[in-house]
Each structure stands twice: as structure tokens, then as C-alpha cells.
Give the backbone structure.
Amino acid sequence: MPDQEAKETRQSPQPARTAQAAAPGDRSPDRRAQPEPAAPPPAPELVSLSIDGQEISVAKGTLIVEAARRLGIEIPVFCYHHKLDPVGACRLCLCEISPGPPKPQTACTTPVAPGMKVQTNTQLAVSARADILEYELVNHPLDCPVCDKGGECPLQDYTFRHGYPTSRIDAPRLHFQKPIPLSPRIALDRERCVLCYRCTRYYDEIAWEQELTTDQRGAHAFITSQFGEPLQSVFSGNIIDLCPVGALTSRVWRFESRPWDMNHTFSVCSRCSVGCNVTLWERRNQLVRLTSHENDAIDDGWICDRGRFEYTEVNAPERLRQPQLGGQPATWEAALQAVAEGLKGRRLGISLRRDVTNEELYLLSRLLAGPLKEARVAMEGRTYLPPPQGETLRIEELDTCKAIVVLGADTEKETPIVNLRLKKAVKKLGAKLLLINAADLDLDRWPDSVHIRPGEAGLAAAARQLIGHELLQSGPVGIVHGQGPDETASADLVAAAQELAGSCGAKVMPLYQATNERGALVTGVVGRPDDLVGCDAVLCFGPPAVPLPASARFVVAWDTVLRPAHGRPDVILPALSFAETQGSYTSLEGRVQFLRPPLQVRQPLRESWDLLCDLGVRLGLAECSRYAGIFQIQRAAAAAFPALAALADPPAPEAPARPVLLGASRP
Ligand code: SF4
Ligand code: SF4
Ligand code: FES
């Protein structure tokens, strides 16, 4: 099996089938008829079996290892992972199964069957697993005291619970050069690898990349990047989470802390509009690690490298901590008064950071409806897309689509985890894929994708020509669209996507890119002139979204750090990072999710909702004096904007999972 896996990971991608501009399609009237609505899925067929004498009924097709997990019976695994296809490479999950041959069998590759009897605790099964662990440890280095995985390492835990109590290994161990930088962010310690092939399988099955492979054979086999080149994929960091030992570690986090001296909090990624769920790891009020927190409705357990690694600015020594006025430290009182006076009566431009929260947007919407009515507003990373029209396609609904059209979007770059969801829908769930784009895409790696390259008439015309296409006749159909090359083309592209959707009963997913772009649209904060041309005062909340206009005579930089693009601001206001801010984002699919800050706000830093209220009062917006806390702002925002109704009732923070240690099961 390992050899087969290694061979599979070396396959080169096959070219996609392409079609020229007009994908013809049959346009006869009956072909244009709306497809029949999909029938509700049938109830799963149940299968009853016993595991260690306990009866259980599970859906047909469930693997024994999952059925045992539901009973609280631990079957150790290395190569098995619930998001990857089973391969049976490591043999650690051996059990006795009857009826069947009188030998240990792998629980991770065997589906349940009616009347099956599984025994995990017979002498044969227990010894078989201990033998496999002993074999895994033959060459394993005694790195645990310095290994980043120590404290959350299945190899440690399984050895304690399922292995022999003492080692019989006193021969020399294999040694490799270590650590090997697989990329600037990932290190490989080959001696620690248990050759489970989770990393190479992930690259092959989930990310569709050909960057990681296995070299040599048997005990000499090792993981390596293709041709020794650094990993380039934007999805590379997930192999760190997948690796069941300390072979793959984050070079950003390496030697920063140990699992037991960090607190972890479940929150939302702040880097783009997908809204992947993440775990923020805190140590001594510093953010030291960021990993996935699986949410099948959104991210399926994956995050991209932007989300995983771009957090170090939170701990930067150059973080702004004190307001400044004319380059000198100032009190909040003096700085905010200077801002209020500097903005009054001027042609104002506001630049917003991509991860502005719904609560901040609500307060800004009140200011823009009152004292700052004439302001122009630009947003970092915002697309040209207009507010959503009606109900939009949800990310998890991609799983049920029979056909998906990706129109004018490079999902790998723009919304990375939506890109992985598309790959899952196509490769694992059988959806047909139609791409309309002038450029090559990484989705072209799917050999059966239909890639339509629009002619001079553009993306919208190519989309309209798909009306009546045979691949869109059996639903559900999903249409995922980007923004197009400019604002005018974008409006036509959105209209074409709606027309195509209307012709085949499809749902549409507009791919907003800035983290809270959808929130900014529904609150009406963006959508007004956004080029800041001619503004003589600029309030920069975050990095400038556009270059500051030469006409600017008064500049406020409100950010976590001072950036060259801020120039020499008149007033500097220190801002909180996503790891300290309370609030929420609206994701590209319209889901309102709450930030759970793991770091305390260090004095004299102040929450941005608090500063906006203070500024509002100084600008004459009396209602701002009513808000004594963020909950009141959330309730007001929920009442004002139906799309933010979820703010009225924030869910309680999810409690960290408590580790479940099952008893030792020694031979
Ligand atoms: S590096 Fe980690 S994930 Fe990859 S094969 Fe080795 S142990 Fe498995
Ligand atoms: S896809 Fe977007 S939300 Fe998800 S991890 Fe990457 S940057 Fe964060
Ligand atoms: S977990 Fe079953 S063979 Fe690896």
C-alpha cells in the first residue's frame, strides 16, 4: 500500500478538457426547462454489529474505526484520517473481526457488516498493535523533550496506552539530516516520520498539488518535496495539522511554546471572506499559534497558509500602544479631540481595513448617515461586486451540486478554502465542473473540467451562452462568480450569472474577498464613491486601501502598526488586532460569526467600538453616548439590518474540548 500511495502521488496532473469561447449547448425550448427539484436524500440504511461486546447500529458503509469511536472505544490510528480516503498503510488499527480470517485486520479500511463481531481487546489484537508500535519506534529518535509535537503527540499517547512498557531496541537508529526546510514555513524531521502518508495523500486528494512525495522503499523510505523544491502551495500548512507525529512542524511556531502552556480559543480567521474557523493559541498574552477548528459547514477542517501563518504582526515589537499627536505621545482625550476637529468641515475619505467588524460598521453607518454624510469610503481588498441579490449559495451546498460553474474567479487565490470545497465536490462527490475564465486555473487539474475561454465579448457573454447547456440540466446547479476585470464588466457579469441561474434553477455564490465585505455592503458603509480623490482629510482604519491622495492635508492613522503607506500622519491611534477585538464578521455566504479574542486588551489600548462612540459624541452624534458595551451595539445593529439579526443573540463561546484518555491496553 505505501508503494502504491507513493506511486499515486507522483502522477502528473492531466490537462483539462477545454472548449473555445462559445460552449455550444443545446438551446431548444425543452432543454431550457427548469430541472426537477432534487428529491430529499433517503434515510441511511443501518447496520448492526458488536464491538467488544457492545451493540451498535450505524449507517451502512461506516468504517469499524468510526463505529468504535462512537462507543468510546479507542482504536489507535496513524494513516487513517476522517477527511482522507483510507489506505491501510500503518497497520496500527488491527483488531479481530468475525466472520473473517483468524488474523488481525485493519479497522480503518473495513466497513461494518450486519452481525459483525469486532474485538479490539483480545490477546491477538492487543499484541499485534503493540508489535506495530514497537516497529514504528525502531528508528524513532528520542526527541520528545525538544519535539514541538510533545504533549499532543499520538505516538507518545499510543505508546503509553497500547505499546510495550519497555523498549527492546538498542541497535543504532537511522539518521537523516534534520530539520529540513520544506518551505520557509514548514520543517521536516525525517527521523520522526512514521510513513503514514497523510501528508502526501492530502496533497494528492484534497489540494490536487504535486509537491510532496515519497522517495526510496521500505525502512529507507522518506518524505520529500518534488525535486527538492520548496513547497509553494497556499494549502501547504494543513500537513502540519495532519502529521500524527512531530515530523512536520511550523517554522513560525517552532520552539515558541509547548501545548500544555498555551490556552486555546475557538475563533474566526480574519484574512479573507470565507470565514474559516480557527483555534488561536495564547501564551503570556501573545498569540503564538493558529490552527484549524473544523467546521464542516464552512472549511471542512482546512485552512490556507494566509490564515495559518499571517498572525505574527499581533506580537510585533513595533505594535502601536499609545496615541500620538504630531509625532508626540498624547492622551486619548487630546488625540480624539484633534481627530474630531480635523475631520469637521473637510472633504473626508475613510479607508477601512478588510477585517472591520459588523459592530464597527454599524457605528460607521450611523456616522455616515449623520455628521460624516459626504465621506468617500474605500475598503482594503474589496471587490467590485454589489450587495447580494436574494438567497445565495452556501459553501456546504456545493457538496450536493451536480454541476458547478465557476465564472470569472480564481478561487485558489481569492477564496482559498472555497477552492478546496470545489475540489471535494468534483473529485469526491462527482459534480461536473465548468470554468469560464481567460486564464489557466488550478482547477484545470481536474481532467474532466470544461474550461471555456471567453472571447472578446467577455465573461458575461460566455456565461449567457451556457444557458441550456446539457451539463446544467440536472440539478442542483451552483454558480460561483468573481468580480470581473472592472466595475462595469462586473455589473454585467453579475447580471449574466443571475440569468444563467434563472435558466437552470441554480443558486449563486458571489465571491466577496475582503473579510467583512458582505457586512460592509449590507450596512451600506461601502458602495459609495471609493477612490478618495480630492479628499483633504483621510481617516485610515488599518492599512490604506488605496494610496493616500496628494490633496490630503490631515491624515489619521488608526492601525496596529505604522506603515510606510500611512506617510507622516497628523494623529496616530493604536488599534487592536483580531486577537484582541470583540465583534463579528459576515462571511461571503452571509454567515455571521463571532470573534473570540484570546488576548487581553493592554492599557492604554481601547476597543475600536469604544473609540468610534467617543468620536461620534465629539462629532455631535448623541446616540453614541448610549452604548456602554458591545452588546448594546449588537442589538441596535440587529434591529437595523436584517442580515445582522444573528447579532441580537450571540452564542456562548464554545468550551475547549476536554481530552479523553482511555485506559491503558497493554499486552
Ligand atoms: S511526515 Fe508526517 S504525515 Fe507525512 S508520512 Fe511522515 S508521519 Fe505521516
Ligand atoms: S480561506 Fe480565508 S478565511 Fe479561510 S483560512 Fe484562508 S484566509 Fe482564512
Ligand atoms: S490506521 Fe488503519 S492501517 Fe493505519
Summary: The first strand starts at residue 17 and ends at 20. The domain at 324-381+518-648 is CATH 3.40.50.740 (Rossmann fold). The pocket of FE2/S2 (inorganic) cluster (ligand 3) is lined by residues 77-80, 88-93, 106, 108 (CB under 6 Å). The chain has four domains: 46-136, 154-250, 324-381+518-648, 386-511.
